[in-house]
Sequence to fold (553 residues):
Amino acid sequence: MSAVIEIDYFNTFIVKGSYSGAATGPNNTVFLSPGIAFPGGLNMSDTTGFYIEESRIRGDFNGVSYGAGIKAFLDDPNPLQQKRINTLIYSGVYNSRTGINDTNVFSTGTDITRSCDPANGSIQRTYAEDTNLIVFQQNKVSRALIDKDTIYTTEGGTQTQSGAKVIGQIVPYKGEYGISNNPESFAVYGYRKYFADKYRNAIMRLSNDGLTEISAYGMQDFFRDELALINDQSTFNKIGVTRNSETGTGGEVGEYYIEVFGNEINNVTLGMQLSGEPSYITHIEPFTFESVNYLRLFLSSPIVNIQPAGKIDITFKTRGKVIGGWDIHSKNYVISLQKNSNQVSTTSDYNTVAFEEQINGWVSFFDYKPNLMFSLQNKFLTVQNISLYKQYSTVTNTRGNFYGVNNASSITTVFNEKPSLVKNFKTVGYEGSSGWEVETFISDITGVNVLPNSNYDNHQDTTSSVKSYEEGLYTDAVTGQPLRAGFNRKENIYVANLISTSPAMPGEISFGQNITGIKGFIATVKFKTDSSTELGGEKELWSVRSDYANSSY
Fold:
């Protein structure tokens, strides 16, 4: 049976709705093909499926009409996307005075790209300096002229001229060095740039005289060994153990992966409560890696306890990093070699070292592991997890305190007077402040042929540790007099006898604590601040010494 629908206005759209395949968006908005949206959703009881929309402004007769408009819709079943890892691209100009902002315009009708040699790997970092753009590839460092180009004359010289190209000719620096996969190692001060080249086991400086391998200044073996241990490929790591109790210690802010065992996936939801407080998990999604099921979590605050019980491990995806920064307070380039992410911190998985230009050498190791380092005005700042710290605090007695943890300062020295003479080291002493102790006193390696098979046995003489002046103080149980088991002070010089802890060697009649001192050509001694004498205060160490006698054999 036919029906008549009267329309009150001319030129109207009559749209038939379709429920199948409709996509629901925010606020229950339903989207119908060919792209018409109905906020609040469709009335599912309406069986007619017809909707009327006026096409004339205010419904005027012969008024201005509007159409459906342009639909920005493109469905390319075979996209031909290219990832040009060695190419730079630039947009249109920005001029705040005239109001021109074409920074989102990338016209394909103009030449807006500049490519580096793909044999040198991907571009990891760029740095604009005056009218040059420094380009750091994995295996090469180059500079590109900005708003000018280079012309080579017939005499073999060069001239620069202004040109239409934003990025001019790319000229490589001399030397086969790059920044590897560690752009986080880059730091700059003045005209000097510093970075790490893991592929060549080198720490580099770029200045007016070109590229210089500063890791060769007394630390070549160290960086060769340590940089080789940095894994710059993303891997999965775990913190904690499988949870079988109602609570379990968790990790820190960041992105985590929970490994799911069997049906335990039902125990891991967005509603996880942390110590009775609302969940800090901002987002969760399934993830599979090498046939193992994970749930990826994004945390806004540290996990303290996890409920309910379930067999889960907190895991995270990370890679080794070489984090660099300029310390403007001490005028040092500080670099932190981190084998693991900062979410896992042990005393053996990182080394933070400082390079000083004034002596052209590496001056100190530090006991902190930062996420980020930078200088602001005359302050050196570091970031650890989500907290910002100011180094070189002016608060009294905070030396060696990094991120709330007190760390002892130490100096390792070598006693090597008359190196060809076998010596008996009898005493140890130093000139400086109270509060220093000797942690280790070790001779060089010697060896003997052990009968009957004549195997060569390496051996090092050692001594007991020497307590500091204050910590070595005790009261004699018989006389009641105060005595010192470590350093004693005489004429403002701290001295102590060395008590041997060496095992017996063939031919020795007296050994161990029955004798004083140790034998050897040289001795390696580690001085360290104690844990009680003005903790965090200033400790000076002017000189160290040892009294020795010629060996009896």
The helical segments are 220-228. Confidence is low (pLDDT under 50) at residues 16-48, 238-281, 302-315.
